Amino acid sequence: MQIKTTIEDHRIAKLAALAIALHMLEAVVPSPLPGVKPGIANIVTLYVLFKYGFASAAWVSILRVFASSLLLGQFLSPTFILSLAGALLSLGVLWLSMHLPKKHFGTVSLSILAAFAHIAGQLTIVRLWLIPHASVAYLVPIFAMAALLFGLINGIIAHKLLYNEISITDTSPRGGLH
Amino acid sequence: MQTLRSICMFKLPHYIKTRIKTKTRVMWVGDWCVLTAGIVLVAALFQQLWSHDGASRVQIRLGDTIYGTYSLNQQRNIHVQGAIGSATVSIMNGKARFSKSPCHNQYCVHQGWLSRSGQAAVCLPNQLSLELIGETKHYDSLSY
C-alpha cells in the first residue's frame, strides 16, 4: 500500500525536518536558566506562516514538537507537555495576529507576540501542574524578557529570510516567488 | 502626450523603488508598537514581582484562624499542631520557612526560605500557611 502524497506534504515534511534540526541544535546548547531558550525553530514556523499560510505553519510546529520529543526521549514527559502547551498557545496567538493589518504589522510583531504566548502557555502549565505554588512568579520577568529579546531577533531573521530574495520584477505585495 | 509619457517614465521606476524599499523594511509601525508594549510589560513585571520590600513579621494561619504572628528578628523553631500532624516553622535572620511538615508532597518545605513581604507558603494537607508581612501590607492598605 502506498500513501498518496502531495507537494504540500513534501514541503511540510522538509520544513518540519528543518525545524526539528534547529530544535535539536538548541537542545544541546546549555542555557543559563532552564527553560530560557532562543526558540530558533520558531523562525521556521514564522517563515512558513508568511509563505504558505497558517495550516502549513501549524503542521510544521506540531510535527516539530512531537518528533523532537521522540528523538530526545521526552515524549509525554513534562518537557513535552510544556513544549506542546507553548506551541499550541503561540499558534493560537499567531492565528489571531495574522489578521492584524499587514501594512503595519510584520514578522517582528508576530514573532514577539508568539514568543510571549509560548512563555505564557509554559508558565501556566508549570504553575498549575508542576510547581503549584507562588514562587514561580519570581521567574516570570526573566522569562518575559527572554521572550521579548528572542522574539525580536527571530522576527528579524524570519524577515530577512522571507524578503531578501525579492527581485525588482516581483511586484506582488509581500510576495514570495513560489 | 509627450509630457504625459515623460511623467510616466519618470514616475514608474520611482514607484517601484519605493515599493521595494517599504517591502524590505524590517520594522513597521505596528512592530515598533508591539516592541514598545513588550518592553513596558517586561518593566511592569519586574517592578511588580521583584519588589524588594523586606518583611518584618511572619503570620502563621491554621485553617481559617490566625495561629500567631512572630517577629522575624529572632532565631527559633515553632512547632505547630496542624490538621494531620506537627509541623515546624523556622525563623532565622529575617527569613521564615517550613522546615518540617507531615504532609505527603512536601511542597511547603521545598519552597524554602521566604524573606520578602507578601511571600507565602501554604501546606494544604495540614491546613497551615505562612505569610510574611512587611511594614506596609500590600493589599489591605485601604482598610487600616
What is the helix/strand order of chain A? HHHHHH
Number of strands of chain A: 0
Oligomer: heterodimer
Largest sheet of chain B, in brief, is: 4 strands, antiparallel
Salient structural properties:
heterodimer; A: 178 residues; mainly alpha; 6 helices; 68% helix; globular; B: 144 residues; alpha+beta; four-stranded antiparallel beta sheet; three-stranded antiparallel beta sheet; 3 helices
Describe this structure in words.
The complex is a heterodimer of chains A (178) and B (144). Chain A is mostly helical and 178 residues long. In chain A, α1 runs antiparallel to α2 and α1 crosses α3. The longest helix of chain A is centred in the middle third of the chain and has 24 residues. Chain A is globular, with a radius of gyration of 17 Å. Chain A starts with 6 loop residues before the first helix and ends in a 15-residue tail after the last helix. About 4% of the residues of chain A have low confidence. Chain B is α+β, with helices and mostly antiparallel strands and 144 residues long. Chain B is built from three helices and seven strands. In chain B, the strands form two sheets. Chain B has a four-stranded antiparallel sheet with strand order 2-1-7-6, with no helix packed on it. Chain B has a three-stranded antiparallel sheet with strand order 3-4-5. The model of chain B has no long low-confidence stretch (mean pLDDT 79). The chains are: A mainly alpha (178), B alpha+beta (144).
